[in-house]
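Appendix C. Worked example: Acetyltransferase
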Amino acid sequence: MHPFSDEIDPLLRQQILLYHSTATMADSERANVLGLPEGCRIREGAKIISQEKLSIGTNCWIGENAILDASGGLEVGSSTSIGLSVFVWTHDSHLMNIDGDNSREDNHRIKRRATKIGNNCFIAGHSVIMPGVTIGDSCIIGPLSVVYNDLPDNSTYTPYRDFYKQKNTITKLEKRIMELEKLVLNKDR
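Step 2, the predicted output written as structure tokens:
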């Protein structure tokens, strides 16, 4: 008995073998084997799901262990960099889990929505782009970001950094309040 299931779609098996065979290639060689446009580079461990539904421009870079889910339709403009371990999603399957039916036969219940990323964008590592989001041209997505809503052209999206700045501002304000309370207490004496 061999360990491979006859129930696995031969196209899926072919995709697995193709990615495995590119493990020792350079970024540009890997992109060429995967049929990506001119000037594209894709690092080892990166994966494109449903590549036939991906539209990607020239001169794009895809970082290590990034996952581009094109199952619901994914468009990426030219000269865009997608950092390491970035996840770009076009599907959502949580309803199957909530209902307790996470079976292959029930996968028609997966919700798919097209996701778009414009030209000249930079998406920093460990970020997540949610299904159905449109990111305009020339946008910067900061590290550790989760993008739930559309972003217009020329946006800089850095919620983690912004949160950290707000935290520092709050800390400074709390310190100033304590100083003022001491002044009031000393004045009353």
